[in-house]
Design goal:
The complex is a heterodimer of chains A (293) and B (246). Chain A is an all-alpha fold and 293 residues long. Chain A folds into two domains: 128 residues, no CATH class; 138 residues, no CATH class. Chain A is built from ten helices and one strand, in the order αααααααβααα. In chain A, helix 2 runs antiparallel to helix 3, helix 4 runs antiparallel to helix 5 and helix 6 packs antiparallel against helix 9. Chain A is globular and about 75 Å long. Chain A starts with a helix and ends in a 15-residue tail after the last helix. Chain B is of the alpha+beta class. Chain B has one domain: 2-Layer Sandwich (Alpha-Beta Plaits), CATH 3.30.70. Helices cover 22% and strands 18% of the residues of chain B. The longest helix of chain B has 13 residues. Chain B is elongated. The chains are: A mainly alpha (293), B alpha+beta (246).
């Protein structure tokens, strides 16, 4: 699939933002005054910024409000609702922290759970797609939620949750990679099966249906160079989980430590999300002979 | 609404005969032509006369080479368009309700006024049946020429999809699969019409007919017995005598 910057920014930033909001809502860190404004502002900024980035790839963003109508069947619509409700739910807690209103924090706990629920709906937008075997399994929500946990813990300066998050993330990334690498082959789809021509013989492409790439090929038949994959996966593991875990363990527990770990984690998250899209093979590629393994 | 209907009164769709398709691309052109002027936004082209032409099409014809275990390789032309699936994954993923499947005839359509152009339906379709129009930013797909098949302003023989109407070899057939007596249902029964990627459980309405088995070429000519001329009568006597002389 085409690793468009808008969807990478959307999933990475909103995941991290909702992670931070979850930790703030649950009261792991309870800043006051302008410090609270900065914390909550960063959380809201990342979440809303990510959601805004997701509208960049829309053909008609002016109709985006319609995306709230089909929550009964569409994970994208559910995500829209979950995101807005979560942001509204946490607003009183954020205001109370900022302005020192001393309002009860119980709703913050509900909001924290809702933050994870929102990122789960984001992950299901991808995990539901049977036509992309690499995505169509549980490792996608596991990976998205682990990123949320790690990012939130790092940005809110929580050492132990950050270490737990990094461990979960290594596991989830490993599961997603190993399961994903064989997912297409395991589905057993070939050009012969997709066209039904295997009952005649061994099928291969004789001539493409058009002479230059079309929307399908640009959007769903992205072919990534193997050397880039081999380089990027270690970067993803290292920057997203291993280096941040080492930093928060070795360096003193200081905001600068977490800021450094957070920035490195963000770059790792972006690398892994690029791979998440670029490596995902859509079965339509079979018809173009682009999925011969 | 993007909830799929539990039942459709008709199941309109196509049968595509891979045995007779010659890959002339007339269906591609007819489809593009018809859908440039009627239903919804016109199918646009980008840089159509330049070095890198590209555009929106609702129907594409692939060409495959198929090598049987014995005998010569065959060319099979393979038209690919929306299959109007019963369990259409493109419909349920739509966040706005723009994608829908009609209860009356099972046609899968896009309400372009409600489409935000997110592209998720194109991702969800295993068959590559949907293309986002780059000029208007809405999703385009085969409408089964819904503006032809019920159009009483057209002569009756034209009330079928443009691709079917134009096909010079009769490789495309249009009809109601819910009716076991329709000619498409009979064709599927006779020729073993099959679904594309049935394991994805989309239950396509459109069916494909496999190329028929080729005849085995005969080693000896049908005319061989005629070449073995046996002379009789005077010619036979002459033949015998001349043979002795030689």
């Amino acid at each position: 699939m085409n690793p468009a910057p808008s969807v990478i920014l959307f999933t990475v930033l909103s995941g991290m933002g909702f992670g931070l909001l979850a930790f703030l809502g649950a009261g792991f860190v309870q800043p006051a005054g302008w410090l609270a404004f900065a914390h909550w502002g960063l959380g809201y900024g990342l979440a809303v910024g990510g959601l805004t980035a997701s509208t960049f790839h829309l053909g008609n963003p002016q109709r985006a409000l319609r995306a709230f109508t089909q929550w009964k069947t569409s994970w994208l619509s559910r995500e829209a609702w979950a995101a807005v409700l979560t942001l509204l739910l946490l607003a009183p807690v954020a205001l109370s922290d900022w302005l020192g209103l001393g309002w009860p924090r119980q709703i913050g706990l509900v909001g924290a759970v809702a933050c994870f629920g929102t990122v789960f709906t984001t992950s299901m937008i991808y995990a539901q797609i049977a036509a992309v075997p690499r995505w169509n399994n549980w490792t996608v929500p596991a990976m998205f939620l682990s990123f949320e946990l790690t990012g939130g813990a790092l940005l809110s300066g929580q050492t132990l949750p950050a270490l737990i998050g990094c461990a979960a993330l290594i596991g989830a990334l490993y599961a997603h990679k190993t399961k994903g690498d064989v997912a297409f082959a395991k589905r057993g789809q070939t050009l012969g099966k997709a066209t039904g021509l295997d009952i005649v013989g061994a099928a291969s492409v004789f001539e493409q249906p058009h002479t230059s790439p079309n929307y399908l090929m640009r959007e769903m038949i992205y072919v990534v160079a193997r050397k880039h994959v081999l380089r990027l996966w270690p970067i993803a593991f290292g920057a997203a989980a291993i280096v941040p875990a080492v930093l928060v363990t070795v360096l003193p527990s200081h905001p600068l430590t977490f800021a450094l770990a957070g920035v490195i984690h963000l770059s790792g998250a972006a690398a892994s999300r690029w791979l998440f899209f670029a490596q995902a093979e859509h079965v339509v590629g079979l018809y173009y002979g682009q999925r011969q393994l | 609404m993007t909830q799929l209907p539990t039942h459709t009164d008709k199941k309109l769709g196509l049968v595509i005969d891979l045995d007779t398709c010659v890959g002339c691309q007339a269906c591609v052109t007819a489809c593009k032509g018809w859908n440039d002027q009627g239903y919804g936004a016109a199918l646009s082209d980008q840089n159509p006369y330049g070095s890198d032409p590209s555009g929106t099409f609702l129907n594409r014809v692939h060409s495959y080479q198929v090598q049987p275990d014995v005998g010569a390789a065959q060319i099979v032309n393979f038209p690919r368009s929306c299959l109007h699936c019963e369990d259409a994954p493109c419909v349920t993923v739509c966040p706005t309700g723009a994608s829908y499947k009609r209860t009356e005839d099972g046609i899968v359509l896009v309400n372009e006024d409600a489409c935000i152009g997110c592209g998720l339906c194109a991702w969800a379709c295993p068959y590559g049946a949907r293309e986002l129009d780059q000029a208007v930013g809405v999703m385009k797909k085969c409408t089964l020429c819904v503006d032809r098949i019920y159009n009483e302003n057209l002569p009756e023989e034209d009330r079928e999809p443009a691709c079917v109407r134009t096909c010079p070899t009769g490789a495309r057939h249009f009809g109601d699969f819910a009716d076991p007596e329709s000619h498409v249902s009979k064709l599927v029964a006779e020729r073993g019409g099959y679904d594309l990627m049935p394991d994805l459980k989309t239950k396509p309405t459109n069916k494909y007919l496999a190329p028929r088995k080729k005849d085995v070429p005969q080693e000896t000519s049908l005319l061989a017995p005629l070449l073995d001329i046996q002379t009789t009568g005077f010619a036979g006597w002459l033949d015998k005598v001349l043979g002795k002389l030689g």
